[in-house]
Specification:
Biased composition (Basic and acidic residues): 1-18
Pfam families: DUF1003
Transmembrane segments: 45-62, 74-94
Largest sheet: none
Keywords: Membrane, Transmembrane, Transmembrane helix
Order of helices and strands: HHHHH
Region (Disordered): 1-24
Oligomer: single chain
Shape: elongated
Length: 174
């Protein structure tokens, strides 16, 4: 661990001590197992295995007696198929584990992205609500027009009252 951090730091001299252990990328075996598992799960592999098994059986049943290398019960074929299965199963499981790790990371990234989207949506909904509240305090054009019409009518009434001569009031002199 310390060796890795020291190797990545450029402000410190490189450690020149040699190790007898080969430095191997730990992902190499995982990538190789995924390639093998992907090939084993393909139709091409099924076709190759079918051709191999049929050729084996035909050669050992129909071929000349002196050329037959596997007896009637096909013990050699059983051994080959068992070896193939014993190596294929762990490789497939390793590939599945790597895929589940990738799925877990993807799930965590999706969850974080969803949380950010929800926070953004919540923020935007609060902003829209604040704008609606602010707009309720703003006077609208129709409100101003109605107020101006009312004021104009009041002014016209006041002007009309001032312009008309006062009506003579009956006097009580008698």
């Amino acid at each position: 661990m310390a060796r890795e951090t020291r190797r990545s730091r450029l402000d410190q001299p490189l450690d020149r001590s040699r190790s007898l252990r080969p430095s191997v990328d730990p992902e190499v075996f995982g990538r190789a197992s995924e390639r093998v598992a992907r090939f084993i799960g393909s139709w091409r592999f099924i076709a190759y295995m079918t051709i191999f098994v049929v050729a084996w059986v035909v050669f050992n049943t129909v071929g000349p007696q002196s050329w037959r290398f596997d007896p009637w019960q096909f013990i050699g074929l059983t051994l080959v198929l068992s070896l193939q299965a014993s190596y294929a199963a762990p490789l497939i499981l390793l590939a599945q584990n790597r895929q589940s790790d990738r799925d877990r990371v993807q799930y965590q990234e999706d969850r974080a992205s969803t949380e950010r989207l929800l926070a953004d949506a919540d923020y935007l909904s609060r902003e829209v609500a604040a704008l609606r509240i602010a707009l309720n305090d703003v006077t609208t054009r129709d409100f101003i027009r109605n107020e101006l019409k009312d004021l104009l009518e009041d002014l016209q009434k006041a002007v009309n009252e001032q312009a008309s001569p006062p009506s003579p009031e009956p006097s009580n002199e008698a």
